Amino acid sequence: PLSIEDVNNFEQVGSASIQSTCFLLTQAYKNSAGGVFYQYIPFKNRVTFSTFFGFKISPGGEGLTFIVSAR
Fold first, then answer.
1. 8-55 pLDDT, tens per residue?
2. Across the strands, what pairs with 35?
3. What does the pLDDT read at residue 21?
4. CB 10 within 8 A of CB 16
5. Using CA atoms, how far apart are residues 54 and 21, in angstroms rounded to an integer?
6. Contact 63, 34 (CB under 8 A)
7. What burial class does residue 22 get, using C-beta atoms within 10 Å of its C-beta: 0-12 exposed, 13-18 middle, 19+ buried?
8. 3-class SS at 1?
9. What secondary structure does DSSP assign to 15-66, as a single string?
10. Cα separation, 69 vs 50, whole angstroms
């Protein structure tokens, strides 16, 4: 579960929404898309990081992608 402070650090795109302390990426509609992005991780001199997340894909769901991007 996400705290309010955590939720404020994410950008929601497409049909993504906040449901209590979790993100709902899409509703059960055809051709729907949504996502969330963490806005910024200040790596500075750190060269590693770790994360943990859970997810649920309902019947008919098509997938999930985890992306790490450098700007």
1. 788 888 988 887 777 888 887 778 888 888 777 666 776 677 777 788
2. 13
3. 72
4. no
5. 12
6. no
7. middle
8. coil
9. T-EEETTEEE---S-TT--EEEEE-----TT-------------TT------
10. 14
